[in-house]
Inverse folding.
């Protein structure tokens, strides 16, 4: 079983959104964009760790069209899972869609309040009014197992043996199979029986014993024709783990045990994930007790800020491990992340990235599905149609440049951890290369560009030939942006490329496209650097040395400011751009 889609209605900032999930899905976006809202809606469906919908906290404060709140989950079923499903719910696509009402006026088939119940869609596509398999809390068993790792959690929550935890669940599962397969538990049971026989007759110095206590009590019970018997039970697996099992962490440098909370937060987070990762190898899913039981096999991990307390190389290792985990079968991971390192590792498959943003307090979702990705790839090929007209460009083209697979490879190469910051920015300024990035960031640092504190990221597009590609990506992910590029005097192919950039703009997300007459050096009154790789250092050196006319610097700063949203627009978090 895999969770394919989540549809949320009236939950916190989400009024109506549907999200497609992959085996490994990343929820990205600025702070307060709604990533945790998606995670919490799924948690409220499963009610894992007693997390439930609470009207005061979870029903939207924004104006809604109705007073209902619910979540729908659509699962893809394996053949054996589909075969075990009641015919009532079977579909040709082998999917199962269920809705849990958090708040509703709807009644069940027998007149009960439907709030808190789960209902399945029938084979004919209509929602049943009879609770799914008849139980209110069926979600804990029929839809796989949920593992939730919050952004700020103590390691104790995941390693305690006295209550539910990842470590206890893992050990319980292993112990269950060990007991069935081995002799140790049988020997323990025999030992408990021998202990019982011996301890009953052992006496204290004053003659007390369990056997005497039992005999004396039974004399008093004789009129009632009842008999009291003391017995010793072998400990259950849960009791063994809770009361008899303990563990230590040994510091190999000091050669002694250390409390886990004496380690750094990064290690503690990695400890938590390591337990979950081992579950993929150690936990064996068992079949239902009855042949007709609807049984499923899914371990769904909801991981908030997996990057927390990890330095960048460790983040990249964890990202790779999570991708590897979902390839092992019945595992699925949804991460709510602020880390461009995690996005970068998943950039080869753009449809697995879900970007969220708030518009007037409401959460909006932007996701590139497979069909949209094809449209983007086709749109990006417009540059090839221009290139064949001009010999210099045509010489740089190769046959594989026109293949869709190459487009995905290019995005994977381009979206390194630095450029992947575009997924978290409130506003992106696209420029041709590192020269503009270096100069603009330096001018911002010197306080010469106003309104730059808008959650801005300045993106190096590696030349104007790729600007339209990044525009297409940002538009479909709902990222407000603007463009500054040289017009190169509309010479040769540049006229068509300049027009391609202009034509790629979007009225909702492209604030402005600014053209620099000629090129940046000409605008600043500088001579050419001599070679492209020297341009950034050349222009910064001239700026530092005071060799650029102050009026020209101010002119460039005003050009940049025209490409930034007004502060009022950013503060209001309005959906469409303020194009004053």
């Amino acid at each position: 079983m895999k969770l394919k889609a989540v549809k949320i209605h009236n939950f916190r900032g989400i009024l109506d959104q549907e999200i497609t999930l992959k085996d490994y899905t990343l929820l990205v976006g600025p702070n307060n964009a709604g990533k945790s809202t998606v995670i919490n809606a799924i948690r409220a469906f499963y009610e894992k760790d007693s997390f439930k919908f609470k009207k005061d906290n979870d029903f939207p404060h924004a104006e809604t069209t109705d007073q209902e709140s619910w979540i729908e989950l659509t699962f893809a079923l394996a053949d054996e899972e589909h075969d075990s499903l009641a015919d009532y719910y079977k579909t040709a696509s082998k999917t199962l869609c269920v809705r849990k009402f958090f708040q509703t006026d709807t009644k069940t088939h027998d007149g009960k309040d439907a709030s808190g119940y789960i209902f399945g869609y029938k084979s004919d596509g209509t929602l049943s009014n009879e609770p799914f398999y008849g139980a209110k809390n069926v979600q804990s068993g029929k839809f796989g197992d949920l593992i939730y790792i919050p952004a700020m959690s103590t390691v104790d929550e995941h390693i305690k043996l006295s209550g539910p935890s990842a470590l206890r669940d893992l050990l319980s599962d292993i112990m269950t199979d060990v007991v069935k397969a081995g002799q140790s538990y049988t020997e323990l049971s025999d030992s408990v029986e021998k202990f019982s026989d011996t301890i009953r007759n052992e006496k204290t110095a004053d003659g007390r014993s369990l056997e005497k206590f039992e005999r004396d009590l039974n004399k008093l019970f004789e009129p009632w024709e009842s008999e009291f018997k003391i017995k010793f039970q072998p400990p259950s697996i849960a009791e063994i783990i809770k009361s008899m099992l303990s563990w230590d962490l040994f510091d190999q440098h000091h050669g002694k045990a250390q409390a886990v909370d004496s380690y750094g937060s990064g290690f503690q987070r990695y400890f938590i994930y390591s337990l979950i990762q081992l579950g993929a190898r150690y936990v064996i899913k068992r079949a239902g007790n009855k042949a007709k039981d609807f049984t499923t096999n899914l371990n769904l991990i909801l991981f908030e800020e997996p990057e927390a307390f990890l330095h960048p190389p460790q983040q990249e290792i964890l990202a790779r491990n999570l991708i590897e985990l979902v390839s092992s079968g019945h595992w699925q991971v949804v991460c709510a992340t602020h880390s461009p390192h995690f996005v970068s590792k998943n950039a080869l498959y753009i449809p697995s990235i879900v970007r969220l943003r708030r518009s007037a307090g409401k959460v909006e979702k932007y996701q590139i599905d497979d069909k949209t990705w094809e449209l983007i790839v086709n749109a990006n090929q417009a540059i090839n149609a221009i290139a064949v007209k001009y010999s210099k460009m045509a010489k740089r083209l190769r046959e594989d440049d026109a293949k869709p697979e190459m487009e995905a490879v290019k995005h994977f190469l381009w979206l390194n951890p630095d450029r992947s910051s575009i997924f978290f920015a409130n506003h992106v300024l696209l420029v041709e290369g590192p020269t503009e990035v270096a100069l603009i960031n330096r001018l911002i640092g010197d306080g010469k560009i106003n309104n730059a504190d808008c959650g801005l990221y300045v993106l190096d597009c590696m030349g104007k030939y790729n600007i339209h590609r990044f525009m297409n990506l940002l538009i479909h992910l709902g990222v407000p942006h603007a463009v500054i590029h040289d017009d190169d005097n509309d010479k040769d192919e540049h006229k068509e490329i300049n027009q391609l950039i202009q034509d790629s703009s979007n009225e909702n997300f492209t604030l402005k496209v600014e053209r620099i007459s000629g090129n940046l050096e000409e605008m600043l009154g500088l001579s050419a650097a001599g070679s492209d790789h020297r341009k950034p250092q050349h222009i910064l050196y001239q700026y530092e040395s005071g060799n650029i006319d102050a009026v020209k610097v101010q002119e460039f700063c005003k050009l940049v400011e025209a490409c930034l949203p007004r502060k009022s627009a950013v503060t209001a978090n309005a959906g469409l751009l303020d194009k004053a």
